[in-house]
Batch of 4 targets.
Target 1
Amino acid sequence: MKKSASPELLEINDAQLMFDVLNEIGIISQLSRAKLESRLNDGLTQHHFGALNHLVRLGDGRTPLEMARAFQVPKTSMSHTLAGLEKRGLIRMEPNPQDGRGKLIWLTDAGRALRNSAISNIMPDVIAMIPEFNRDDAEAVLPLLRKLRVLLDASR
């Protein structure tokens, strides 16, 4: 008769498996960031693109603090990213009418165009993956990744 593994050993094995999943996601994040940044112009980074993409997805009028919280970075880091975008004319910051000291962030037409251009520039790389990672693969993994994101987001 085969002995079953102890609950402690199963927990360790499960924990290692979950670590391996998170490690793979981290590596995928690094590789995809490098690919995206290779398609951006003018010294822009994934952080710049992320801020622009966030404003497109969720709308204008965000505060730097709201964006820092969304990206889980210090407000000073987000302020630095936003300053670079403002310097390039990709966003504009205006006084917050509800808080005289605060600012609200607005995407400019140039910022929206740059975000859309970046997506267009990386699309050939995405299309090149389709023979090996197709629609069926994406549809199978996306719900699992969303579930994991929700769990991680809830635990921050």
Note: The two ends are 44 Å apart (CA to CA).
Target 2
Amino acid sequence: MNVKLKMNPISKAKRIVIKIGSSLIIDQNNGRINNEWLSILSSEINNLIRGGKEIIIVSSGAIGLGKEYLNIKTKTLKLEESQAAAAAGQSMLIHAYNQKLEKYNIKIAQILLTLDDTEERRKYLNAKNTFDMLLKLNVIPIVNENDTIATSEIRFGDNDTLSARVAIMMSADCLILLSNVDGLYSDGPNFSKTPNLLKRVDEINPEIEKMAGDSSGYGKGGMVTKINAAKLATSSGCATIIAKGSLNKPIENIINNGKHTFFKPIGTPQSARKKWIASSLNPLGRLFIDNGAKNALNQNKSLLPAGVVRVSGKFSRGDLVLILDEKDNILARGLVAYSYEDAQLIIGHKSSEIEKVLGYRGRDELVHRDDLVTEIN
């Protein structure tokens, strides 16, 4: 594949989440890593990175690998058997990715998540900051559900949903769900007539959802979970693609306009995030800023501690706050990077002084521009 990508949804994307199912990563004949397939995919990932893309991989397979390794023969696993298999198989999964990608001098890191990590504000921020730093260091995060500790109450239930949540968290431009089918067929999974592959879906409505059929046939959740994942991702501005992963070169197949289904996003990840900040949260505090900081906001810059004259309210890191001028006019709202107690200590200080004041090095910004929405009167 030429490093210069052809014009398609992948070429337009800067940040891509790729979800890989168990049936792709595991050789169905022996229950071990499908080395030939993973070698090909690793080459394609290298091409994407050389083309300027940031890649996040959400990979299933730990339980299947662990089950084979631990010689667990039962078809339906008890919770503790699944957790033991995940614990054994996850290290094998990560080792396989590392072995294939290090050939291209690509570093990887393991991130295990539970539903709480994308729901609870503090955990969400911690996870996002870890992702951000890894991508900044040119490291590919390899993500899986933390099956070792997850119970039914805190499970995503399937990695399609997990991949959509990760895509939303990281403001990804494109989510690729590699499946064992070419995409979404209008006749559903059980074809009663000539199958009709939908190349493009502009809106996921009840008619489209009906085409997914029952929750069976593909992986744990089937096409139903893939459509639900696409609905989550596209509503947050992330284009979604369902394509057959077992092809010789699945990514190149998409780039060359081979069989797949493309789901059109609603807006962009940035606009979706800004909309969420503007309308979905109740402010828990206020930051009052000077004219210099006000001018910076008008130039779409971040809010630094030096420009804040006082704070009020009771907020924690990641909470929504209002930003006002010294005449109490609301200028903007955003997600604050420090708690009320820490914000009180660092306001008026330069960013370079934060570590000295707090005893730890936090973010340079009190509110980053990506987490800030200017009020429209």
Note: The domain at 281-374 is CATH 2.30.130.10 (Archaeosine Trna-guanine Transglycosylase; Chain: A, domain 4).
Target 3
Amino acid sequence: MARSVDSRSPQADEAQLARVPLCGSFALVLDELRGKKLCDLGCNQGHYLQFGGPGSLGLDVSDESLAACQARGLTVQKHDLNQLPLPLPDAAFEAVLLSHVLEHVKAPLAMLRECNRLLPLHGTLVIGLPIEDGLYSRLRMDYFGGREGHLYSFSLRNLDKLLGLCGFASQRVVCHLPRIGNRVSAWNQRLQDLFATKLYTLSAAYWCVARKTGQPALDHQLSDYFSR
């Protein structure tokens, strides 16, 4: 079983957080996942999965990542996320995490539908995404030509539309500012409180917290083009 960190002291929890990727911004969405029965799709080495509660599960295609998770005592399963449906039962988890996965899979809309299937009504979906059209990406990253292997990019407006089509409602967005977002700091929360999504164009990535509000739209409802 994945270990829960509910009983840890705040100091120990912060020390654990400091060792995970994007820790400063992730700290601001951690309470959406902490101690819950979590499905981490593309769990990597369990950096985020370790904060889930009993019954949590990670899926990844990398043997190296799976071995690292198992060394931490985390429950994981090998699976290629491009192969849908996922080998998991309906409404089996309280929360689903997609951290820098959606921009790599061949069918993002189908993946979001699968996330809907894995959650009960009002279940939590947390998505982490890089930003293509921000200042950081323009100066520091070749978004589609670099080694990251990005297939898609998702603006705030685009993601909000896709979430709505897949039975989710976006609740809040946390922007990941370069340097500041890479460490646990009270400044992350202060800046989010003051500027919220106005930080988007200066950020390298963002987290979106969404809730399941219903079932995905049917295929013929994805576009209203032919009804005009």
Note: The domain at 10-217 is CATH 3.40.50.150 (Rossmann fold).
Target 4
Amino acid sequence: MNNIKNHIILVFLSFCFVSVQAQTQTNKVVTDTLTVLGNCGMCKSRIEAALDAKGIKAAEWDIQTKLLVVSYVPSKISLEQINQLIISVGHDTNSKKAEDGVYSTLPGCCRFRENPNTHTD
């Protein structure tokens, strides 16, 4: 009887270890850098606000370099979904272009296609 009990405890502990290990890998944070077009502080606010989503841990867009550094959990959100969030607010990325209708709703100073680098604040 003790052997069976010990065996059950061992199996249970093994299962717990595997579950914890899988959960740790599932919640692993990855950081990527994307080019995102924009011109000014309003663009920065819009881009970063669009990335206030489940699975995204941090997002910082640099006005000068046009680079977005985003830290996220791939099991919760994909890089494809991150690109989609950005283009949904009118900004192009290095892999996707925002729809013209959405882009046209941006304020004049934010229209990077017509006015590249017009603002640096």
Note: Residues 27-110 form a domain with the Alpha-Beta Plaits fold (CATH 3.30.70.100).
